[in-house]
Write a structure and sequence with these properties.
Methane Monooxygenase Hydroxylase, Chain G, domain 1; 5-stranded mixed sheet; 16 strands; elongated
Length: 661
């Protein structure tokens, strides 16, 4: 319950709201206002070399193995190792036939007529031993009639084989292995000497696989970028009029709204080379590498102009500079400084357009945003109703859809969804259709997929006790009835007591009738009343409350505190703003962290007023449920039987919703 109620109304924020459900935040990709091109994220990369790297690796490994085998064989070819005492014993026995004496070793041949018991060596074998300081050695060799000779070894030969050759061979081995791996992005980046080379992936002319036709839900942003496309196609017309195209275009927007995809669509429309790189790929552990890569990137861009350079997540290197001390901070600032210099060094109308994307414009350095660098900022918001319909149509291409699929209904039921969420919904629907062995994606599959994204997957294995299940039914019925009788609350769309997600034991889904961008005080108050309706139902019917309303209390408290501290709707502070957002400007709503910006005395007054607002909302919820006690029992018992109620079934039980005043 506490987790599920998060999905009833949080999608709308305090100033621009479009949903009464909050979706669980999963991994989001920053590009799904349309499908990816067949080239993938970076598109087809231009190869830096056509040599068969795998064959080079095999040859190199073969040479290494041969070299080590030769070293082993050359050591073993000298003969069996024996001690000097054993050598003296063989010499006294007269079985040593040949001997070669050097300054530190003695090698030779031993031949015996019979092998003594316990001696595992053969009758005839070659030997080697370490020479000791023995002045009588030559006399004993002559006395035993040994064919001996002295050998003067060249010290440079052993030094070359054992030390110099391996030391020369090791760097070559490292270089070949690095080149065979190709490095990040391929080419010379795999070389130990290629740290300063740019890691940008170059997409060849007309191979991005994406055009403006593949991007939906951001018509205003596409219109802003049409000038860039026209300049790249026909720059002479702009030059004749003395116009200067913006050097840089910054794409702003929350995750999943299609910033990366829109940048690739610009390159696809213009038919020019497209350099793509992430901001984090500039910085390495070595100081100065980031600045070198920036220089190399712009040098490559100027050689292939006209072209587009796209830096994704530019906030990784473009954060505001400060006075912090540290190697990492210095490296990032050097990279940013070099980027600023390169932007200033662009010649007017040089044909190189810099596109960058970020969802944290509040942390960017001001020098990066001034005119002459990023001259234009294009904002991509979450799509509206028409935009969601267009995005669904784009992502549905190539998917078999049943005749009952209604994109308008799906778009109306997904306010606040980004392009990434809609693409994920269609993919989940296709998976559900495949799981039931269907040949088409039905409207029910799409609704089930959206419900899965909003509230999480069903937990069929989570079995609740009878008392817990009854409490959940009354809790959700309380939310639904209070929403039904609150004139400024969103209508109830679906009620369920099936456990979903990590902690949701049930949920009540509300959907707005139309797009909404502002909220009044009455709407905020009704939202708090609905949030506290579940706890009020538990207290009214069961005489005790549970932990299931923890998330409801958190969100209701957030709304009340924002009303007093941010929206100027309180009596204790008046029109004064007493808190500021800690999170990004794109993260709005009751879940946003607030930082106090007032005195201790004012903070105590705020706490008292927030508590008074919540107490009044809870009293209103209790009053509504007391008046609708019979309907509360009816809805709860029906939920216990069916587990789910849609909007039509709920309205049939409680009647037509009273009109808003």
């Amino acid at each position: 319950m506490n987790e599920a109620e998060r999905h009833t109304s949080e999608a709308r924020d305090e100033s621009a709201s479009s949903s009464s459900t909050e979706r669980e935040k999963g991994p989001q990709r920053d590009e799904p206002a349309g499908p990816r091109g067949p080239a993938g994220r970076g598109g087809p990369e231009r190869p830096h070399g056509d040599r068969p790297r795998s064959s080079w690796t095999r040859v190199l490994l073969f040479v290494v193995v041969l070299w080590f085998l030769w070293m082993i064989v050359s050591q073993g070819a000298r003969g069996t190792e024996i001690t000097y005492a054993q050598f003296k014993g063989y010499l006294a026995a007269g079985v040593v036939k040949q001997a070669s004496v050097t300054s530190d070793r003695i090698t030779g041949l031993i031949e015996r007529e019979a092998v003594p018991a316990g001696d595992e060596r053969p009758a005839r074998f070659e030997f080697q031993t370490v020479r000791v300081d023995d002045k009588a050695l030559v006399e004993e060799l002559a006395k035993a009639n040994v064919d001996y000779r002295g050998v003067v070894e060249n010290p440079l030969g052993g030094l070359f084989l054992l030390w110099i050759l391996p030391l020369l061979f090791l760097p070559l081995l490292l270089i070949f292995l690095a080149r065979s791996r190709g490095g990040a992005g391929g080419g010379p980046m795999g070389s130990p000497f290629g740290f300063g080379r740019s890691r940008a992936r170059l997409v060849a002319d007309k191979h991005t696989g994406v055009t403006f036709a593949d991007v939906a839900g951001c018509e205003e942003a596409k219109a802003d970028l049409e000038e860039v496309v026209e300049f790249l196609k026909n720059s002479e017309r702009f030059v004749k009029l003395g116009a200067k195209i913006p050097k840089g275009v910054l794409l702003l927007g929350p995750p999943g709204t299609g910033k990366t995809l829109l940048a690739r669509a610009v390159a696809g429309e213009a038919g020019v080379p497209f350099f793509s790189i992430s901001g984090s790929e500039f910085v390495e552990m070595f100081v100065g590498v980031g600045a070198a890569r920036v220089r190399d990137l712009f040098e490559q861009a100027k050689k292939t102009a006209p072209c587009i350079v796209f830096i994704d997540e530019i906030d990784a290197i473009g954060r505001a500079r400060g006075v912090q001390i540290g190697a990492v901070n210095d490296e990032r600032e050097q990279t940013l400084n070099q980027l600023l210099v390169e932007l200033d060094g662009f010649e007017p109308n040089s044909g190189v357009i810099l596109l960058a994307a970020t969802n944290r414009p509040d942390v960017l350095d001001r020098a990066l945003l001034r005119p002459g660098r990023f001259d234009r900022q294009v904002v991509l918001d979450a799509p509206d109703f028409e935009g969601r319909k267009a995005i669904l149509a784009v992502h549905a291409k190539g998917k078999p859809l049943a005749p009952d699929v209604d994109f308008a209904s799906i778009a109306r039921g997904t306010p606040g969804f980004s392009g990434a969420d809609l693409a994920n919904a269609l993919n989940e629907a296709a998976l559900l259709a495949s799981r039931r062995r269907g040949s088409e994606i039905t409207h029910h599959d799409l609704e089930e997929a959206i419900e899965k994204i909003v509230a999480g997957p069903e937990r069929q294995t989570r079995r609740l006790k009878t008392t817990e299940r009854r409490r959940v039914a009354y809790h959700e019925a309380g939310h639904a009835l209070v929403a039904h009788h609150s004139p400024n609350a969103d209508p109830v769309h679906k009620i369920s007591i099936v456990p979903r997600g990590r902690a949701a034991l049930g949920y009540t889904m509300q959907l707005p009738v139309e797009e909404q961008y502002l909220m009044t005080r009455a709407e905020l108050e009704d939202r708090m009343v609905v949030l506290l309706g579940g706890r009020a139902a538990e207290q009214l019917v069961l005489g005790d409350v549970s932990t299931g309303a923890a998330d409801d209390l958190e969100r209701a408290t957030g709304i009340a505190r924002q009303m007093v501290c941010v929206f100027g709707m309180g009596t204790s502070t008046g029109l004064m703003r007493c808190a500021r957002d800690v999170d990004s400007q794109y993260l709005r709503g009751p879940g946003v962290r607030l930082e106090r910006d007032c005195s201790e005395e004012t903070a105590r007054a705020i706490d008292g007023e927030v508590r008074a607002i919540l107490d009044a909302s809870f009293a209103t919820a209790l009053r509504i449920l007391e008046a609708q006690r019979e309907k509360l029992e009816l809805v709860a018992s029906t939920l216990l039987d069916r587990e789910r109620l849609d909007r039509e079934e709920f309205d049939a039980l409680v009647g037509v919703r009273p009109s808003a005043s």
